[in-house]
Amino acid sequence: MKKAGQTNTETSRIRDILAKSLEMHVLNLTDVSALLELRDRELWQEIFDAARRVKEKVYGKRIVLFAPLYLSNECMNDCMYCGFRTGNSNAARKTLSAEDAVEEAKLLAGRGYKRLLLVASEHTKLTGIEYIERSVDAIYKNSDIRILHANTAPMKADDFKRLKDCGIGVYQCFQETYHIPTYRSMHPTGPKSDYAWRLSVMDRAIAAGFEDVGMGVLLGLYDWRWEVGALIAHCRRLISKYGFGPHTLSVPRLQPAQGANMNWKYRVSDDDLKKITAIYRLALPYVGVVVSTREHARMRDELLTIGASQISAGSKTSPSGYMHDGDTEQFEIGDTRSLEEVIGKIASLGFMPSLCTACYREGRSGERFRRLAEKEAIKNFCRENAVLSLKEYVEDCASGDVKGQLQKLLNDEIAKCTNGLAEKFNLIEAGKRDVHV
Ligand code: SAM
Ligand code: SF4
Fold first, then answer.
1. Are 403 and 350 within one domain?
2. 242 and 99 in a common domain
3. Range(s) of the domain holding residue 395
4. Which of 5, 151, 218, 276 has the fewest CB atoms inside 10 Å of its own CB, making it the most exposed?
5. What whole-number distance in Å separates Cα of residue 173 and Cα of residue 117?
6. Does 15 map to a domain?
7. What is the pLDDT of residues 100-142, one digit of tens each?
8. pLDDT tens across 58-97, in order?
9. 23 C-alpha to ligand 2 centroid (Å)
10. Residue 69 contacts by C-beta under 8 Å, 6 or more apart in sequence?
11. How far apart are CA 18 and CA 151, in angstroms?
12. Which residue CA neighbors atom 2 of ligand 2 most closely?
């Protein structure tokens, strides 16, 4: 049993760490392991509270929304946990044509999305860089989607350059697990079986010009404390080598998937997922922490209060999934609420839903974005842009109770604001779109 003196030392050590993070310093690995080791439930409440405060210092109340668009489920790999694996012989396979990708993007734009994450399985012939370039180009030219990010297999540096040049904002790739024996058993065949190729993916993406990269581990493959420590060590290595780390960290938690072959020995509990979300937020105060619809609604609502800053909504995880069911999904969705329902819920929790994509258009990305985030200045842009994006949403898409709720929220913003917001609202009502600062 702990003595009182020991507890006080632990409490003051943890409070020092929280203070460091609240001053926007990246935590070192000793700090991170102190958080990982902590069992005291009361102190964890303080940590969750600090994570929320750090998030609000950087981004204010805004929560960014997006959806994934799955381009293909035809894959050469056999990742044990994934519905797209070669070993899933019952899978209904499909790779979208550029025209199909545009149809999905238009459908999503019609629901109010402005930002999509393109997701693709790995297939040298079907989903190589030429295919991705064609899809990106077609979506930008033929839909109202304003920014595309990508979660694709690792590429060589020349292909990353093409991916950047065709207009992808953030390149995202998860290491899945840093634990080599687990990595080998989970990825027995295919290009993904090469651990070193995956581990070095961000070095090649950064060398090719991507300053905004998204990282993560697939939580549930191995001991989460070990994985979180390893991921933060990886981020710190990027920071010391390139002067910057990831733009986002995601918290993907293992979900059931058709045809998967896995055990649940390292299942991550809801309580532990909250801790992981808070640790990412505190360890790298300025990163975007991304929560997907893998999580059920209550969990997602809770994670918003402890540091998450971006969430997907209304997602489907199969190619053509927004147009119709039938093709194999990557994994089961935990939160099936529509974008409109999620927007309503976010607003009712006291946050500001945001469909904004302004930073990418205004060159506030990479180093510039980070400097603004560290100086706690990005939230000033975020708030106004979130409000302007919601005004567009109300004009074009919202309905029923959510429309009324958002209209009230916008009226409150007008009442608080003195910087020409009402004039910008008039422009939007008159039909102008993409009004932002
Ligand atoms: N195929 C590429 C790859 O593996 O890197 C691109 C993206 S893959 C379609 C997206 C991510 O989904 C994977 O990196 C993995 O972490 C996650 N994923 C796969 N199966 C999952 C499951 N059963 N539950 C939760 N996430 C899963
Ligand atoms: Fe293919 Fe990615 Fe699924 Fe692995 S996780 S089987 S690489 S789609």
1. no
2. yes
3. 376-429
4. 5
5. 12
6. no
7. 999 999 999 999 999 999 999 999 999 999 999 999 999 999 9
8. 999 999 999 999 999 999 999 999 999 999 999 999 999 9
9. 39
10. 101, 104, 105, 108, 116, 117, 118, 119, 139, 322
11. 32
12. 121
